[in-house]
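Running this now, will post back.
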Amino acid sequence: MELNVTVEGQGYPILCLHGHPGSGRSMRVFTQHLSKRFRTIAPDLRGYGQSKTRQDFVMTDHLNDLERVLDRYAIERGLILGWSLGGILALELAVKYPKRFSGLILVATAGRPWSGHPPVSLQDNVYTGIAALINSIKPGWDWNIETFAKRSLFRHLIQQHTPSAYQYIADDAIYAFLNTSPAANRALNTAMRGGYTRVQGYEKIDCPCLMLAGEADRHISAISSLETAEALPNCESKVYPNTAHLLPWEIPTQILEDIDHWLEWHPEAIGATA
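Update: finished.
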């Protein structure tokens, strides 16, 4: 299928891949910054955002969809930035088409993701719904954060319960959740039950890579992120204390500064001469 894609800026192309649940809109924390110097391409993956479908599909269909996106925008070589599921797909793409990518930026992801998420209770779900609803009306309200959010599933997604983090949740997370299709849920769940994991084949990825992880991530543990980083031939990694799976929304300034510094040290990742 032809994906809905948001393109911003001009220059060297950066393919920005969102997680689950998510959409290209979820990547605005990155694209609004990077599009000032580069051309960012942020698709809604199949079954997410405006790339709607009711038909069942498998995870490898994402790779075929993304190959068509690269061809549609005449991207012969570019950099990939992937967050969570987007990082898993970035790794899969780079293994499949190693000559097509000059660098990988991987955020809260792993080739073999380990989860330390505790069981979800009825109270978790109720408080999450209440906190999300109130936050969509009054983002970052301290009373809502203290009364409901810190007792909801948000406590596993973020560690720094700041108004700015909850503003991102209001702006992008609720939209992502509401626009993730049942087909997308089934595809991911089926893949994970079947062992949709890998750490082999990474020797093909010889481009520079950057792995960023949250120390308290309960969805994809920092340990599994570091295992993937160690399996990649040319990967630097950084684990941020007091952050979790939504770390780009917790500490956006630091994350973006670290990405900028990494790009300065690895100009080959953006097609420049080292």
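Residues 122-137 form the longest helix (16 residues). More later if anyone needs it.
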